[in-house]
Design brief:
The protein is mainly α. The protein contains 7 helices and 3 strands, in the order αααβααββαα. It has a single domain, classed as Arc Repressor Mutant, subunit A.
Length: about 160
């Protein structure tokens, strides 16, 4: 018996799996839709402290050690323009500071003392959002989803140009 025969007849993709030359539905489109929905889910929680999910992600990746915008962008796999947009409100709030590097033209970013305090508050809000997500989708499902996403990230990286 073929492994694809274990798929339920009610599975809308079972006929697509049988036709090896036909592509499955667009994964990129589905991921974008899930990303929008997931972002909305987290942001309904983060709204109480006035940040977006993208800002939370940046906040969690800034350290007390000075780092360049390029280093932070590389760690987040985010373009500099988007990162700069996410950073502006955090700089305005005093959570992130820009300091001079060895070269006066170099822009280094650090998390300030108030940024550390705010990050602790944000982590608690994220914690509650994460538990709510796990309650909504099921903890095993979320663990499997995270494992599959990590696998996809590691398998896609070598297929992209180096600047990605």
């Amino acid at each position: 018996m073929k492994s694809s025969s274990r798929i339920s007849p009610a599975d809308p993709y079972s006929s697509l799996l049988a036709a090896a030359d036909a592509p499955l539905p667009c994964t990129g489109g589905r991921l974008r839709k899930v990303t929008r929905r997931m972002t909305s889910f987290y942001e309904q929680h983060l709204r109480v402290i006035g940040i977006k999910l993208s800002q939370y992600s940046v906040l969690m990746n800034i350290s007390s050690e000075p780092q360049t915008l390029l280093q932070l962008a590389a760690r987040l796999e985010m373009d500099r323009t988007t990162l700069t947009r996410s950073l502006k409100p955090m700089v305005d709030q005093g959570w992130v500071a820009e300091v001079a590097g060895d070269d006066a033209r170099q822009r280094l970013l650090i998390l300030t003392a108030s940024g550390h305090r705010f990050r602790k508050q944000a982590q608690q809000v994220w914690h509650d959002a994460q538990l709510a997500l796990e309650a909504q989708l099921g903890r095993d499902f979320v663990a499997n989803l995270n494992a599959q996403l990590d696998r996809a990230l590691s398998q896609l990286k070598p297929a992209l140009p180096e600047e990605n």
